[in-house]
Design goal:
The protein contains 35 helices and 25 strands. It has 972 residues and is of the alpha/beta class. The chain has a domain of 322 residues: Aspartate Aminotransferase, domain 2 (3-Layer(aba) Sandwich), CATH 3.40.640. The longest helix has 39 residues. It starts with 9 loop residues before the first helix and ends with a helix. The protein binds pyridoxal-5'-phosphate. It catalyses: N(6)-[(R)-lipoyl]-L-lysyl-[glycine-cleavage complex H protein] + glycine + H(+) = N(6)-[(R)-S(8)-aminomethyldihydrolipoyl]-L-lysyl-[glycine-cleavage complex H protein] + CO2.
Length: 972
């Protein structure tokens, strides 16, 4: 472990400035805030002049309705320096005790190859990227995700895999929901093998109930009645370590029109017959042990693979291969991209932010090791397990006789507490499986010493242990003969092309060089808050004290985390006005789901189970209706008026019509239209008077922190997208965290410990979701302090209004607040351009690539528009560069309007332009190469070159290819 230096004395060091003349003695308060916030004080003054406001405070007053302004300061204190924050986090990490974890239960020690740690996990080119909706600037990460999908299909023996899901337990729940969608059986029950991980069973229970499914937990050999279920889930190997053969059960399920889902360990699959070979229709699991630290619960990528027939019903994001404008193969998201926005409450799931960065890491772990390397790791782990079991038996320990891969079950009886305690003393956490049962899971990090230490925990006579060890025969294979894998896997070139570190390093670099992330340009995505992810915030997440803890480690080993969680809860409450926070939801959409479940439980506890209607404005993010549907609610859409505001009359009418069955309203505030609606308080009052609860979608909190608090103006519950407002990087589409804040009356209905299936609700596998990325948000809040947070919000609003002021003359701004201001984002209406010239939003978005920009959000929440959110982190120079590009593009459109060129022949229609096009002998366009590739403001020396031209989405969806194609296929 690293140094345990204690932090500075924060009780007295802050707020006291006894010697103001000697500021050199102490780092300047607010110094970090000035680095986080892009525009300098001087720039802010200049920008305020452009927007026509006298001061930031005046602009704030013009933007936020007085009725919602916060009455309380956030009371977080002064911002700390980077040095102080690191010292305190070191101290907290030091208060966590890292033992060797042999707990298993879905979480294992693993070795993240240093070349991947440094060049992906710690590399902003990967972690600051956005979800690859703009495929031309995302080819690197899309290729990495295709590797992940290929790895999963190869290991599982199924046809198609997504990239990715949030954790194994939620993936299993998605598998259950998918089974219901595709099964021909009309049954409403789902069977779960009792040997599944307890957290998986807990999440399935939670998910099943509102969807009207009965969950039957039992032994597949004796309790499965295939005619009475639409599907069944088997764990492979089981949580007890047991490897059972599900073939017969699967055949029986199929005969009854039911679906078989297997939760399978990817490392075990290198040695065991694959789910596909056993007949399974769906496989799910966690890829955590492929190089991703346990992280006290996450983040890790879960996978889902399905038979070809079910690909169009699969949840999550799917990377596919298509072709670009020159016919070259090119990657892009296929089929389900943004499906919630299209299908809303009929969406297959509410998954939005997933675990992209972790999927990239797991996929690269497979590239690094290759199939033979993975098999060698698996064999070694299994061999150690066999030795461990033989030794324990020789010592007279009751090892349960069952085929296993890496996990032993021991009947220790009354001796269990002593054994567990002795193991802990020796630095090992074993699993207390209850009832005198102990679980021991070995992993990639296990050694002969680990095995020795376990023996010694069971036998206190060192001589006997030594004697026994000397007499052990060499380990034999303990896998069941009928289930040993015969099939080869991962024979695609990528899995054997990077055997040296040089090759690996250059492969990773080549991929990231193809992409645009925040380390190269602003990413002005509305609603996604692509702000700075400061390096200092990122440093702690790879410290062993934060990343090497098992989520179910004993509480006395996780004191540092407990303090960190308590701090973060207190601060999020201060910022939002809520009373309690649950950290279990591991994405914003999961937060929505957890919050709605709490509302549902609250109504039921008050004898009002008839309250099932959820009112959602038409402008809502697609995850809102999808989550409401999952929570068993009926979605009723409320209209928006021409100003983009919730239509108050329609809201009144719908509240009145549903006075008896109104459960909740879900409102994004400020709205997805980028304005603070004046009526927010009135709407919340209206809903409360009718007995409903108010869910405020907190994705747009970046426009409110320090200025307004959802609980003050009427919210009962909100999620906080920590990967938006609170600086967790997007990672190319995840990880994220979506903790929810609730008012006190909802606190009893928050999620409980998922390891305790009897306890209550569980929305994700780990008690605190993706805990290991929480230090990022902790650091951000602590660095900024009250003044910094408030200033960040004000500048976020300034930056958005500055863009409006610079662009409004050329692009109509669709919605504004009562005093003509936008909140932290704005919508530019490009439909008039389309109508007059035929130039589409896509043409505009792709042309921005030629100027070196990532496009804004396209066609959400209004089709044919750009939604732009600059965030406070972008400085004036970058905002000007963006505005200049937008204005230059407007001039290119004007040339079409004047009839000088056609839309078809224009530089817009053929964007983005590649280096290959520039260098080709032929140039068939009426515009010059110079105009295409080096428009105003783009310098040849620093130009970003997209690796492919515009990608044909329809072609890819018609010819769906979602794993690494053969070289031969590409040649055709
Ligand atoms: C991002 C977002 C969500 C969903 O959050 P995830 O973390 O992606 O699941 C919900 N609502 C709004 C308005 C958002 O912008």
């Amino acid at each position: 472990m690293y140094s345990q230096a204690s932090g500075p004395d924060h009780g007295s060091a802050h707020g006291v400035d006894a010697l103001p003349a000697f500021t050199g003695l102490k780092e300047q308060a607010g110094a970090f805030a000035a680095r986080h916030i892009g525009p300098t004080a001087q720039d802010q003054a200049a920008m305020l002049r452009v927007v026509g406001a006298a001061s930031l405070d005046e602009l704030t007053d013009q933007t936020l309705p007085a009725s919602i302004r916060a009455q309380h300061p956030t009371d977080i204190g002064e911002g700390w320096s980077e040095t102080e924050v690191l010292a305190r986090l070191r101290d907290l990490a030091g208060q966590n005790t890292v033992l060797t974890s042999l707990i298993g239960q879905g979480y294992y020690g693993t070795i993240l190859p240093a070349v991947i740690a440094r060049n992906i996990l710690e590399n902003p080119a990967w972690y600051t990227a956005y979800t690859p909706y703009q495929p031309e600037i995302s080819q690197g990460r899309l290729e990495a995700l295709l590797n992940f999908q290929t790895m999963v299909t190869e290991l599982t023996g199924l046809d198609i895999a997504n990239a990715s899901l949030l954790d194994e337990a939620t993936a299993a729940a998605e598998g259950m929901a998918l089974a219901r969608r595709v099964a021909t059986s009309r049954a409403t029950a789902f069977f779960v093998d009792a040997d599944c991980h307890p957290q998986t069973i807990a999440v399935l229970k939670t998910r099943a109930e509102p969807m009207g499914f009965t969950l039957v937990v039992g032994n597949p050999e004796t309790d499965l009645k295939e005619d009475e279920v639409f599907g069944a889930l088997f764990q492979y190997p089981g949580t007890s370590g047991r490897i059972a053969d599900p073939k017969a059960a699967i055949a029986a399920l199929h005969a009854a029109g039911a679906i078989a889902v297997m939760a399978a360990d990817p490392l075990a699959l290198t040695l065991l017959a694959s789910p596909g070979e056993l007949g399974a229709d769906i496989a799910v699991g966690s890829t955590q042990r492929f190089g991703v630290p346990m992280g006290f619960g996450g983040p890790h990528a879960a996978y889902m693979a399905v038979r070809d027939a079910y690909k169009r019903s699969m949840p999550g994001r799917l990377v596919g291969v298509s072709v670009d404008s020159a016919g070259r193969p090119a990657y892009r998201l296929a089929l389900q991209t943004r499906e919630q926005h299209i299908r809303r409450e009929k969406a297959t799931s509410n998954i939005c932010t997933a675990q992209v960065l972790l999927a990239v890491i797991a996929g690269m772990y497979a590239v690094y090791h290759g199939p033979d390397g993975l098999k060698a790791i698996a064999r070694r782990v299994h061999g150690l397990g066999v030795t461990l079991a033989a030794g324990l038996r020789a010592l007279g320990v009751a090892v349960v006789a069952q085929p296993f891969f890496d996990t032993l079950s021991i009947e220790a009886g009354a001796a269990a507490p002593d054994v567990l305690a002795r193991a802990r003393k020796a630095g090992l956490n074993l699993r207390d499986a209850g009832g005198g049962r102990i679980g021991i899971s070995l992993d990639e990090t296990s050694t002969a010493q680990t095995v020795q230490a376990v023996w010694s925990a069971f036998c206190t006579e060192p001589d006997r242990v030594a004697q026994m060890a000397a007499g052990l025969p060499a380990p034999a294979c303990g896998l069941p003969a009928g289930l040993v894998r015969q099939s080869a896997f991962m024979r695609q070139a990528v899995f054997s092309s990077c055997r040296s570190e040089t090759d690996m390093l250059r492969y990773l670099r080549r991929l990231s060089d193809q992409d645009l992330a925040l380390d190269r340009t602003m990413i002005p995505l509305g609603s996604c808050t692509m702000k700075l992810n400061a390096t200092v915030e990122m440093l702690p997440i790879t410290w062993p004290g934060f990343c090497d803890l098992h989520p179910f480690a004993p509480a006395d080993q996780t004191r540092g985390y407990q303090t960190l969680l308590a701090d973060l809860e207190r601060w999020l409450c201060a910022i939002s006005g809520y009373d309690t926070v649950s950290f279990q939801p591991n994405s914003g959409a999961q937060g929505e789901y957890a919050g709605l479940l709490a509302i549902r439980a609250y109504h039921r506890a008050r004898g009002q189970s008839g309250r099932t209607v959820c009112l959602i404005p038409a402008s809502a993010h697609g995850t809102n209706p999808a989550s409401a549907q999952m929570a068993g609610m009926k979605v009723v859409v409320v209209k928006c008026d021409t100003q983009g505001n919730i239509d108050l009359e329609d809201m009144r009418a719908k509240v009145a019509a549903h006075a008896a069955d109104l459960a909740a309203v879900m409102i994004t505030y400020p709205s997805t239209h980028g304005v603070f609606e004046e009526n927010m308080r009135a709407i919340c009052d209206l809903v409360h008077e009718a007995g409903g609860q108010v869910y405020v979608d907190g994705a747009n909190l970046n426009a409110q922190v320090g200025l307004a608090r959802p609980a003050d103006y009427g919210g009962d519950v909100s999620h906080f997208n920590l990967h938006k407002t609170f600086c967790i990087p997007h990672g190319g589409g995840g990880p994220g965290m979506g903790p929810i804040g609730v008012r006190a009356h909802l606190a009893p209905y928050l999620p409980t410990n998922p390891a305790d299936a009897a306890a209550g609700l569980a929305v994700s596998a780990a008690p605190f979701g993706s805990a290991s990325i929480l230090p990022i948000s902790w650091a951000y809040i602590r660095l900024m302090g009250d003044a910094g947070l408030r200033r960040a919000t004000q500048v976020a609003i300034l930056n958005a209004n500055y863009i409006v002021s610079r662009l409004a003359g050329d692009y109509p701004v669709l919605y504004r607040g009562a005093q003509g201001r936008v909140a932290h984002e704005c919508i530019l209406d490009l439909r008039p351009i389309k109508d007059s010239t035929g130039v589409s939003v896509d043409d505009m978005a792709k042309r921005l690539v030629d100027y070196g920009f990532h496009a804004p959000t396209v066609s959400f929440p209004v089709a044919g528009t750009f939604m732009i959110e600059p965030t406070e982190s972008e400085g004036k120079a970058e905002l000007d560069r963006f505005c200049d590009a937008m204005l230059a593009i407007r001039e290119e459109v004007r040339a079409i309007e004047r009839g000088e060129v056609t839309a078809e022949g224009s530089v817009l229609r053929h964007a983005p332009h590649t280096g290959a096009a520039l260098g080709a002998a032929e140039w068939a366009h009426p515009y010059s190469r110079q105009q295409a590739c080096f428009p105003p403001g783009v310098r040849p020396a620093t130009k970003y070159w997209p690796p492919v031209g515009r990608i044909d989405n329809a072609h890819g969806d018609k010819n769906l290819v979602c794993s690494c194609p053969d070289i031969a296929e590409w040649m055709e």
